[in-house]
Write a structure and sequence with these properties.
mainly alpha, flat, 5 helices
Length: 154
Amino acid sequence: MNTTNRLNHAYSQAPWRVQRQWVSIFLLIVLGFAMIATLYLMVTSEAAIVGREIQDLRLAIITTEHTNADLQTELARLTSSYETQRRARELGFRPMKAEEVEYLYVPGYIAPKAAALAAAPELQPSAPSTSPEYTQSLLDWLGERLQTPGRGLR
């Protein structure tokens, strides 16, 4: 029995070793949870950053569309008839009178023909220009051969 007590005593662990094993297992579990939480926070923060960038890009698109619309409005105002006439008067231009018109004759110049805006008239279909041999169908040819008694199908 003495030998069994010695073996039992030799293999039994000290209480502080058992306590250290439990503490290390607990710390490993806490470390695992910390790693999972860190990974979760990294993914969440990346998603939040990308979402914010998308919002910024949408705002930039809207701002650009508003600027484009403002520029189109300004262009329409500047090219309006009233504004063009006002700027022409400021530059010294005035409306032309009928007696001020002077036509210049250029020898050899041929004026371009006016564009025809109407549809072209329909042409009458002409007679076919191909010979009858090429317009005859196989059934017509066969019927003609069968009706002619002397020629047959040779």
